[in-house]
Design goal:
Blueprint lengths: L18 H10 L7 H24 L1 H5 L8 E4 L6 H8 L5 E2 L3 H5 L7 H14 L20 H4 L17 H8 L7 H22 L3 E5 L7 H7 L4 E6 L2 H19 L6 H22 L8 E5 H6 L1 H11 L5 H14 L9 E3 H10 L1 H6 L9 E3 L5
Parallel strand pairs: 1-3, 1-4, 2-3, 4-5, 6-7
Length: 382
Amino acid sequence: MKKNQKKGFLLPPAVGYSFRVLGYLFGRHYVSFKFLIRSLLTLLINLINWPFRSYEKLFINKKYSRKEIEKDPVFIIGHWRSGTTHLHNILCQDPQMAYTTTFQSVFPDTLFNKAGRFLFEGFARILIPGTRKGDNVTLGMELPQEEEFALGDKTPVCFYYFWMFPGSLKKFYERFIRFRNIDASMIDSWKDDYKLLINKALKNTKRKRFLSKNPPNTARIKVLLDMFPNARFIHIHRNPIEVYLSTRNFFDKMLPHLQLQTIDAEVLDAYVFQLYKDLMRDYLDQRALIPSDHLVELSFDSLEQDPKTCLQNLYRDLDLSGYVASEPYFEAYLNKMKSYKKNKHHITKELLEKIQNEWGFAMKEWAYEIPKHIEIKSNVSN
């Protein structure tokens, strides 16, 4: 069996969270009976992890929490399934770009504790599947990963709690992306945690500039600019019709491995529609806050069709150094990815009309039409 075909077993990211966060999650959200064993196993691994992460918090984190972040981060933003992962993986080939690894995203405070890392990294390597459910993206402990899971490990502020408790998705969006009904002190703690995570990622990858890929940040621009006024942003967008089909498929494949409570398919579908509207409207409302020379908007199609030109333009428009030195690494990675197979989708006429009605504002904003390669069926339910 090839490495990327390895079977695996996923557990909720709460295995690396603090007791404070566990108290928030399990104290305020119900667990469905069918997921009780998964919950207990998650809590058991978390308990085993406790002495290791406690040591790192007490004796290691202080060093990185006080450290200045010398280079302004680059934030890749965009709705899920819009190409953020692909762009992130490409840009991480640049030797200067630091990133959160998959291991750090799950065990952010067991990163520099040698005994703890040896134990849990080995454990994770055995369990983690070779590819991600839903899109066939290769997984690995040292490969780039988005940082949202890790941002909720100490301070209970993380949109991705919804993977465990999907019934609270709307509430999590309001509190943890829009930062409504949340104490200012908690937001400050979240900001401190974010800077700590970045400094640890810089050290862990031995690189100079942090490259973030985190879709929830698409609607957090104001807060991110408060933290990093000179940060660069790359917004990657994709045809909303393709985004819906890919998102729905991704949720259907990933949620069964992470959820701790059940949710009706109709409710989840309504959340998918609302989430896109909220995220993209919030982005459009905040976009003007970013200086024009610190933002690039990029289409997924153009990145697929002519990645070299897109990358050259990114480095030029954002005034980033290092393109020439990184070009061979980009080319090697892109050549390797030529064999990657995307999922195929079809759509019903009724669903197509609904997407056009509800997400038409985004189709108009970026001049998207119905994709010619998507099969439209009249008698197949979604």
